[in-house]
Amino acid sequence: MALFKPPGIAETLDWIDALMALDRQALDAQSLRETLGVLLKVQEDQARMSPAQLEQVVAAAQRPA
Question: Rounded to an integer, what distance in angstroms lies between the CA atom of residue 16 and that of residue 38?
C-alpha cells in the first residue's frame, strides 16, 4: 500500500498498546478504524483508507504466515 509515511516500529507498538487498552482480543475492521490514527500519523494516509482497504488489511493480518 502506497503511504506517505508507512508505520514504523514505534507506531506499531503504540497501535498494539491502543488495541490492548480497548481490550481487543482479535483484529477486525472496526478495531482498525478506531485506532487508525495511532497507526497512520499522516491524515492524508488515514483519509485514503477506504472501508474495503480496511477489510483487506484485516484479512491479510489474519492469514497464516
Answer: 9
pLDDT beneath 50, residues of the chain:
none
Q: What grid cell was written down for 46? A: 488515514
What type of residue sits at position 10?
A: A
Q: Identity (one letter) of the amino acid at 22?
A: L
In a domain, 4, yes or no: no
Please give the grid coordinates belonging to residue 41: 500519523
What's the domain range around 37? 9-62
The helix-helix angle for 29-39 and 9-21 (nearest 10°) equals 130
Rounded to whole angstroms, the Cα distance separating 58 from 7 reads 16
pLDDT value at position 65? 76
pTM for the whole thing? 0.82
